[in-house]
Amino acid sequence: MLHLNASLLPPYFPARLGTPVQRGQLDGEEGGSRLPRYEAWREGFDHGILAERPEAAVLDELLRVGDGLTLILGEPGAGKSRLLEHWAGRTRPAAPGYGVLVPLLLPLRHLKGQSSLVDPALRGPALADALWALGEPGADVPTNGRCFRPLWLLDGLDELPADPPLRDWLKRLPSLPGVMVATCRTAVWQAAELGSAPRPRQIETIMPLRPGRERIDFLRPALGPNAETLAAQLDAQPALSPLAGNPMLLQLAALLWAEDPGRLPASRDQFYRRAVAALWHRRVLPEARDRTRERDRVLVRLADRMGPGAEVEKGCWRTAWTIPVPPKS
Predict the structure, then answer these.
(1) Plot region of 229 (φ>0 → left; ψ -120 to 50 → alpha; else → beta)
(2) Which fold has domain 16-206?
(3) Distance (Å, rounded) from C-alpha 80 to C-alpha 205?
């Protein structure tokens, strides 16, 4: 049985990626059928019409094309980082040699505090050397990346230092040699003021887990035969079913369900209350667990700064953070 001491890191689950399709591309479809239109993610943006592909097909295509930037969009918890980790493992060579494709996984939050990287004149091989030194090329790979054909797996454009702005980074990244993939939160990308910065060659969106079989398969490693029970309960609750398309939130639902088998929160408000309480109890040091007032003040300030979200029912945005602490075990 899964319990609250289990890891919250969702297991890797093969993603489906959605490629934006122009409306004019639909006219020649066989039988006049239209590609499916999906609900926007909970961050509130409509991605339009998306043609789905397995993530493996997208990786094969970008390696075949061999240049440009492929951008992977998704909300927090959609699986962007896990996807890049999977691609790094899939493309990492058994024996790196001169000219061999070598993935460089780089969480872009590592660039914070690296003042030398702010210089707009830092481009091309010099920029590549600086980024390679901060990334994770894997074991047995020399620190000098110039010997290889790099596959840049840049995780989190939304976590880049605010100065310089994202548009300036987009002007410099094309100077890197090799193939580039970057991830970004959908909301950040859609709100960014990019000006004349170069646009990605391809934009893909991580699609939510479908109700039914896909969510069952995701839950099965943690819950075993109980995966079908939880998936059915989530699908039957209109308030929670959209949340379950997000792997991280589905993992949280599994943790809460395992804590109290057979009983799920009745609303999103209750879901967030219980989830925050459970995370606080398992992640915070025992001596700090009673500092709930300080926690609630921080969460209320965060809620005010973010503004009302589509995922929270009207009127419960602030009150959702008044959360009781679970009893000590």
Answers:
(1) alpha
(2) Rossmann fold (3.40.50)
(3) 9
